[in-house]
Specification:
single chain, 503 residues, alpha+beta, 7-stranded mixed β-sheet, 6-stranded mixed β-sheet
């Protein structure tokens, strides 16, 4: 009998492979970073072949580290940085161009042109999304329009498109030798090409963008008993293991946090910050700047939808402090630096590096630091960097409360930044509700593993997974209401000044 389920977790800055046992405990993990490529201001790329190489390395590394027999793995799930767009040749497996990352803003003129007919919400009733550089559809159009030979190959059915989940699933299940060209409903819902009601690609939108339907992957359930494919002998797994779970990283975290009931929410703190609220089998339109998205689909069950607040820059701001300014040498040092001061000293940092995402959707906004005096030092800047994440989360939470009509009583959190006690305490303070971290904080990988395991009967059903969720730490709000209100008002003033900067 199989002992384990595993997950490939391909994120914006790194790739990890995690192996879990039946109780959802981590058996082994291996992780490696990949290069961030910035060809021009606002352009962000990854090398898809480097990502596939890193994926192979972490799979082999995690298996070797725990001496796991791959034949003891029941299934593999995939979770991924969403919206990051790859187009590659079906015969060779070679990308035509680097992956265009979700943070990339080069498609701003495409989005502006599209908005001339129907405004920014032109396709929101169908897709749940505003016209924004964030999503995959305009990125595919950019590649088709700007990279020689791609459109011709796409028309012939030789060029394939996928988000990173599709790219890795194709390679994991054989690549040019019959790899499965599939995606799941959660990733498809982030392309701006899928109709939320039909869960199929929308021909009208494809026609407007000039995207040939034959280059798109087949849309499948997030947990698929019919399997996407199996890993071949001689590959990085080197055994026939079903690949049958696929979720965008934030939806995977929602599953890993067992937010299976309408009204349950989670917030993931990674490169960006993403809060998802389960709205059940109904797609709830947002009136407050949130996204309507697919949460997950288990086999033949109806799809479950979510409201999402997407924040572009949170953990990436700490990396910026490290890599661009050199104020710290490792990301974890930001907490110690921030603790050298009692408060932010009046300094606020709005990290609108790629514009403002939810709930503002101002793609012409840019980052700013404001409130500087001679008193301010690098400790205040570090503190402002951390606090920016908490303020942005409150903005999203307030929008979520408005749309759902259900005030949140506690926030489940996960991701790399939740081990920063200073940030988590400030998050509880500025929200005025408890913040709760689970025992397994890397719930993105766990959610993908759950999806794969459910598909092959390793776990019985969603309900049975709740027993494995355990609280690790809780932060209670300790700030008085007057102070909370003053800080948040100043934050909103700073955000207002960052808007509409780019002509």
């Amino acid at each position: 009998m199989a002992k384990y389920v595993a997950a490939v977790d391909q994120g914006t800055t790194s790739t990890r492979f995690m192996i879990f046992d039946h109780e959802g405990r981590v058996v082994s993990v291996e992780q490696k970073e990949h290069e961030q490529i910035y060809p021009k201001p606002g352009w962000v790329e990854h090398d898809p072949m480097e990502i596939w190489e890193r994926t192979q390395e972490v799979i082999k590394g995690a298996i070797a580290k725990a001496s796991v027999d791959p034949r003891d793995m029941a299934a593999i799930g995939v979770t991924n940085q969403r919206e990051t767009t790859v187009v590659w040749n079906k015969k060779t497996g070679k990308p035509y161009y680097n992956a265009i990352v979700w943070q990339d803003t080069r498609t701003d003129t495409i989005c502006e042109e599209l908005a001339k007919d129907g405004g920014q919400d032109r396709w929101r009733p169908k897709t749940g999304l505003p016209l924004a550089t964030y999503f995959s559809g305009p990125k595919v159009k950019w590649i088709l329009d700007n990279v020689p030979g791609v459109r011709e190959d796409a028309e012939k059915g030789e060029a394939l498109f996928g988000n990173i989940d599709t790219w890795l699933t194709w390679w994991l299940t054989g690549g040019p030798s019959g790899g499965a060209h599939v995606t799941d409903v959660s990733n498809a819902s982030r392309t701006m090409l899928m109709d939320l009601a039909t869960l199929d690609w929308d021909d009208e939108i494809l026609g407007v963008l000039g995207i040939p339907r034959q280059m798109l992957p087949e849309i499948r359930p997030s947990s698929d008993p019919d399997l996407y494919g199996t890993t071949p002998a001689g590959g990085p797994v080197d055994a026939a293991v079903p690949v049958c779970g696929d979720l965008g990283d934030q939806q995977a975290a929602m599953v890993g946090q067992t937010c299976f009931s309408p009204g349950e929410a989670k917030n993931t703190y990674g490169t960006g910050c993403f809060m998802l609220l389960n709205t059940g089998t109904e797609a709830v339109p947002s009136k407050s700047g949130l996204l309507t998205t697919v949460g997950y689909k288990i086999g033949g069950e109806p799809a479950v939808y979510a409201l999402e607040g997407s924040i572009a820059i949170t953990g990436a701001l700490v990396q910026w402090l490290r890599d661009n300014l050199g104020l710290i040498s490792q990301s974890k040092e930001v907490e110690d630096l921030a603790r050298t001061v009692e408060d932010n000293g009046g300094v606020f940092f709005v990290p609108a590096f790629s514009g403002l995402f939810a709930p503002h959707w101002d793609l012409k906004a840019r980052g700013l630091v404001i409130g500087l005096t001679r008193f301010a030092n690098k400790g205040h800047l570090a503190r402002a960097v951390l606090e920016a994440t908490a303020y942005q989360t409150r903005e999203v939470l307030e929008a979520m409360n408005k749309d759902s009509g259900v005030p949140l009583t506690a926030l489940k959190v996960d991701g790399g930044m939740v081990y920063n006690d200073l940030l988590m305490q400030f998050q509880a303070d500025i929200l005025g509700v408890p913040v709760i971290r689970p025992t397994v904080a890397e719930t993105t990988s766990l959610g993908a593993a759950y999806a794969a395991g459910l598909a092959v009967g390793f776990w019985d059903d969603l309900k049975s997974l709740r027993q494995y969720w355990q609280e690790d730490k809780r932060w209670e709000p300790a700030m008085d209401e007057a102070k909370r209100g003053e800080l948040y008002r100043n934050w909103l003033k700073a955000v207002d000044r960052s808007k509409n900067w780019v002509d």
